[in-house]
Amino acid sequence: MKIAKQFHWEMGHRLPFHKELCANIHGHSYRMWVELEGGLDPNGMLLDYGILKEKVKPIIDEIDHAFMCDENDDVMKQFLAGSDFKHVMVSFTTTAEHISEYLIRKIWFALQGYTNLSRITVRIHETETAMAETSLTREEFQKVV
Questions:
Q1: Which of 74, 114, 122, 136 is packed most tightly, with the most Cβ within 10 A?
Q2: How do 87-90 and 26-38 pair as beta strands?
């Protein structure tokens, strides 16, 4: 069985290695689909949508209206150190691909107690026409934790 729920947030970032516009500070209106796979519980549900929202919302709140900064981006680290701007430091380049990997691990961690879940897939839409997808089984997640 599969279910899915969509989440939204606004976030800034930059890709310092990029040779074009994405090297500049910019932001996106992100959309994320969280898809769960697994067996039904005794009530006939994979997971209540309200529980899914309750578990994912704090993860989104951490990055909503924030600047996601690669810890190796010395220019932005120096700028952010002297400000009160909301930001999240991460150990990766802030591509949609890496953001999807970052979020799926946080979501699996939040949902790991729901033993009927077997796979989580995350689709991050950075724009209307571009997205990155990551999928992890429970076993794959347990290996990377």
A1: 122
A2: unpaired
Catalytic: which of 13, 37, 98, 126? 126
Task: Check if 126 is active-site.
Answer: yes
Which of 18, 26, 65, 140 is catalytic? The answer is 65
Q: How many structural domains are present in the chain? A: 1
**48 is in which domain, residue-wise?**
2-12+29-59+96-144
pTM beyond cutoff 0.85? yes
Q: Does 65 qualify as catalytic in the annotation?
A: yes
Give a yes or no: residue 42 inside a domain: yes
Instruction: Summarize pLDDT for 10-41 with one digit per residue, the tens.
Output: 999 999 998 899 999 999 999 999 999 999 99
Query: Looking at 22, 28, 35, 133, which residue is catalytic?
Result: 22
**What is the predicted pLDDT for the residue at 144?**
86
Distance CA 22, CA 35 (A): 28
Strands 26-38 and 117-125: antiparallel
Percentage of the chain modeled with pLDDT above 70: 100
Tokens of 18: 């990029």
